[in-house]
Amino acid sequence: MSLSPPAPREALHRRTLEMVGYQRADGLFDVEAHLVDVKTYPFTNTDRGTVEPGVPLHEMLARMTLDDSMTIVSFEAATEFAPYSICPQAAPNFSRLAGLRIGPGFVRAANERIGGIHGCTHIREMLGQMGTVAFQTMYAVRHRNQAERGNAITTAEPARKPAVLGTCLAYATDSPVVQRMWPEHYTGPAAPEPPP
Fold first, then answer.
1. Between the CA of residue 80 and those of 9, 51, 85, what are the distances in Å?
2. Exposed/middle/buried for 64, CB within 10 Å: 0-12, 13-18, 19+?
3. Which residues on neighbouring strands pair with residue 13, listed in sequence order?
4. Which listed site, 2, 32, 66, 183, has its alpha carbon 20 to 30 Å from 19?
5. Maximal CA-CA distance, the chain
6. Which of 29, 26, 27 is nearest to 136 (CA)?
7. Does an H or E element contain 181, and which?
8. Residue 120: exposed, middle, or buried by beta-carbon count in 10 A (0-12, 13-18, 19+)?
C-alpha cells in the first residue's frame, strides 16, 4: 500500500536521518545518528551569509555507546552545520547522558540533563529514535546469541508484562498479534469454538 498521488507541488526542504546500530568488539554497542536538513533555494543567514541550495542548514552527528543492560556508557555529539555560530557549543553537553538507561522515561530524564538552554533541539530530537534503534540492535543480538546457544527464543518472560503492550495498533491488548505472542495479556474476544 502506498500514499495517494500528491497534488502538484514543489520541494522546499529535505531532512535525512540515518541511524545504525553496531555491536563493538569490546562487547559494548554503538548507535550512530546523522541528521541533515537542506533547502532547495538560497537564503540569507546572519551568521553564515547566503546558504545555497543543497548546502546543509543543519548537520548533526551523535554516537551513543551502551552496555548490554541498555545503560549509556558515553554519548558524543557534533554539529557540522547550524544556523548560528554558537550552536556547536551545545554538543559537548550531551556527554551528560552517560549513566542513563534506555527504557520508559528515558527522553524525559535526558531532557532534565540536556534540555532547554543546555542542549540542541535537533540532537535532542534524535534521542527517542536512537533509543528505538538501540532496542532493535539489542533484540537482534539477543536473538542471535540465543540461537547460537541453541536456546528457545521467547518474546517475553511469562511473569512480566511486555513493555511494548499498548504502544501501537499491533500491540493493543485486543490485537491478534498480542493474542498470538502473549495470550496471557490478551483482552480481546475469545476465539470462536471450532464446529463439531
1. 30, 14, 10
2. buried
3. 39
4. 2
5. 79
6. 29
7. helix 176-181
8. buried
